[in-house]
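Lab notebook: predicted structure, single chain.

Context: the supervisor wants predicted structures on file for every construct in the current expression panel, including those that have not yet been purified. This is the next one on the list. No modifications to the sequence; it matches the entry in the shared construct table.
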Amino acid sequence: MVSMDYQQINADHTVFIQRNDGRTTILVVYVDDMIVTVDDEGDIAQLKSRLGKEFEMNLGQLRCFFGIEVARGAKTIILSQMKKNEHVSIEGYYGSNWGSCLDDRRSTSGYYMFVGGNLVSWKSKKQPIVASSTTETEYRAMALGVAEMMWLKTLLVELKTDQGA
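Prediction complete. Output recorded below exactly as produced.
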């Protein structure tokens, strides 16, 4: 994608963006799936042609991605998540269970994140070490949750979706 003048964003290396003459193309690649959103039908036809020479593809219409609904009119594409000019909120919750594994006394921690009220990320994992207190266990869970929240914030800013969350 870089050879096709797309820029790989820093927040997520599976997201590529291209801006030309006021038009924007965003491409998300995940394993064997690809999501493309563009301002101009000519741009998508050109992208399909170039990618079709290298990959077998079947691109359908995008309906929803990352909690953003996509509606199409005759000459417009409308992305909606929140009311126009409002902030996109990021909410995160975390928790842990100190020494929950009876075999090795390691704690389990987890988090879940919402963007604009939509669940977009979650994780539950046994902590790699035995914590010496409930406070340490909660701190480790909070650190994981905050790191995920910061990654989401960076992703939204780079995609120009965030307006100051």
